[in-house]
Amino acid sequence: MSEELLVNVTPRETRVAVVENGMLQELHIERGSQRGVVGNIYKGKVQRVMPGMQAAFVDIGLDRAAFLHANDIFRSSQLDAGEVDDPPATPSMQVQIPITELLRDGAEIVVQVVKDPIGSKGARLTTQISIPSRYMVLLPRSRVLGISARIEDDEERARLKSLMTELARPGGYGYIVRTNAEGQPAEALAEDIAYLKRAWDLVEANSATAKVGSCVYEDLSLPLRAVRDLIRRDVEKVKVDSRETCERLREFAAQYMPGLADKIEHYSGARPIFDMYGVEDEIQHALEKEVPLKSGGTLVIDQTEAMTTVDVNTGSFLGQRN
User: What CA–CA distance (Å, rounded) separates 307 from 313?
Assistant: First the structure.
């Protein structure tokens, strides 16, 4: 299996494509004027508590007030320790506590964005903060130790759990061990823990002095996130068509994943990098509203504020069986 990451940088937007055996598998886009805020941490102020909705609207400095549901508010009862498999970013249904017992109008709180604003709807928030790194995710308001369900080897899971139990003990925080951690030595995990602790200390320090509506932690830009999350040992090359971005990625990789830094190279070809690899054509096919199927049927895809709808039409497909 041959896998490459292609990074296309323009003044308007940055795009990252994951190409496997010449076929586009993933596409990530970040527009300069509309960069998403998911993962960012803000110091907010509760504008209005809505008991009937079990939610509150919070001012975090964006154009529209953001939405915080009662289930997304951290409570001390969630500080249970233990091992879990890939816990969800947002909790499942919990014992309902009235929102009025958790928040009050005018209260200042530290929140994290879990869903970007769309249409007339504001961002979705949580107070259950999480900060990702190369090999794990820090849960500063939890003591849960989670192991990614994608790590299937029982011996490796036991090894990682043993290492994390020892390494995470001094801070008393919770962690989710990511798939990238499989096979990594204790030193690499310890470096990640130290990095995450520094990041959280900075968030706490900034939160204490920041004004309402200030961003106290901003997630990495798309190219850096791609290197952090997508580059693996089976990735042959990371090709970047911007020399400046390429150097920044190399510096980042040299600091956090030195064994993979040599895979990042500058693409200086005359043809645009996405044209060279046929990615532009794949994108155009993927973004069409109507998608033909091999059977003769079609999919019609429409996006609204509340949902994305997929209409399945049989078209010319009649079939021979029920």
Answer: 19
Q: What is the pLDDT of residues 128-140, one digit of tens each?
A: 999 998 899 999 9
> β-pairing, 144-147 with 82-85?
parallel
Q: Do 39 and 224 contact (CB within 8 A), yes or no?
A: no
Q: Which residue has the tokens 């586009």?
A: 24
How many Cα atoms sit within 13 Å of 195 on the Cβ side? 17
pLDDT band at 319 (very low <50, low <70, confident <90, very high): low
Find all residues with CB under 8 Å of 308, minimum gap 6, and list them: 301, 302
Q: Are strands 298-303 and 308-313 parallel, antiparallel or unpaired?
A: antiparallel
CB contact at 8 A, 114 and 90: yes
Ramachandran area for residue 102 (φ above 0: left; ψ -120 to 50: alpha; else beta): alpha
**H helices present in the chain, as ranges:** 154-167, 186-209, 222-230, 243-256, 273-276, 279-287
Q: What is the mean pLDDT of the chain?
A: 87
Tokens of 147: 């192991």
Cα angle 309, 32, 125; round to 5: 55
The span from the CA of 236 to the CA of 225, in Å, is: 18
What single DSSP character describes residue 200? Answer: H
The 8-class DSSP code of residue 118 comes to B
Sign of the alpha-carbon dihedral angle for 247, 248, 253, 258: positive
Please give the structure tokens belonging to residue 21: 């055996």
Phi, psi of 193 (to 5 degrees): -60, -40
Kindly report whether the global pTM for this prediction surpasses the value 0.90.
no
Residue pair 161/186 in contact by the 8 Å Cβ criterion: no
Question: What span, in angstroms and rounded, lies between the C-alpha atoms of 109 and 44?
Answer: 5
Q: Tell me if 87 sits within 8 A of 142, measured CB to CB.
A: no
d(CA 148, CA 145): 10
